[in-house]
Structures are given as C-alpha cells and as structure tokens.
Amino acid sequence: ILNTLESYRNRPLTRDEAGLMDECSICLAGCLSSSQEARRVVKTHGFEGIADQALRSSSSKARRNFADVMRSLYEDKSMWCNANDFSVSAWISQSGLLESARACRESLDTMFEASYVLGEVHGASFLGASCVRAFRLAAFDTPNEPDS
What we know:
Layout: H1 2-7, H2 15-34, H3 36-45, H4 48-56, H5 60-75, H6 88-95, H7 97-109, H8 118-141
Helix pairs in contact: 2-3, 2-5, 4-5, 4-8, 5-8, 7-8
C-alpha cells in the first residue's frame, strides 16, 4: 500500500488511478486504526507524504482517509515518546504535528485570496481536525506539564 501511494504522489491521476488511491487510503486507515504494528511500519517507512496527500489528493474520500491515517499516528503517543516520561513538546516535535498544523493553516488562509484550491482547503479541514483532536487528547492526558 505504501509503495503504491508513493508511486502516485504529486501527479495527476486518471479516474482508475484515483479509485486505486481511494481504496489504498481506506485500507491504510483501517490498518492503522486497529494495529500498533501497522503504525510502527508506517512510521518507519515514512509518513510525511501521507499528510501531504491528506491536503492535496484529488479525491475527497482519499483526503478524509489520509487525515484519519495521520490521526491514528498522532494519537498513538507510545510511538513518539516513552510512556513514563511523555512530554507534549517532544511529541509535537517528533510526530510532525506542528508542521501538519502549519500546512493546514496556510491552506486555510488561501480561502481569502482571489483564487484558491478548494480541494486543499477541504483536506486542510480534515487534517487540521485530526491535529487538533490529537493535541487536545494529549494535553488532557498530561496535566501539570509546564510547556503544555
């Protein structure tokens, strides 16, 4: 799935290729929502392109599922920090959540320009919601941390 996603990244897709991306995003979201091992494999393989596809995929279904993939990665705090000394700051830095949130803000800011890409704004709303949810859950779970 990851190799397929990478091979179709950042290029125009035919209708059949867009359908394949939809199905890959559905399968990946399902795997990551239910398997920590799958999340570890994706983290090892590289997940930065998935956040980008959540913003820029030509398919609404794929954007939504890629945002779910990122949410599953972000919310699994054990992948980013030791459970005994979890730090929100370290988690934000290691997971790439801040970069994703910034990319979402930049895409959402384009709504006020004369021309903007609706798909990116749509993707930014899904990915941004995943970032906010993960952050709120992490901050809620770690009261009394000075940098949260």
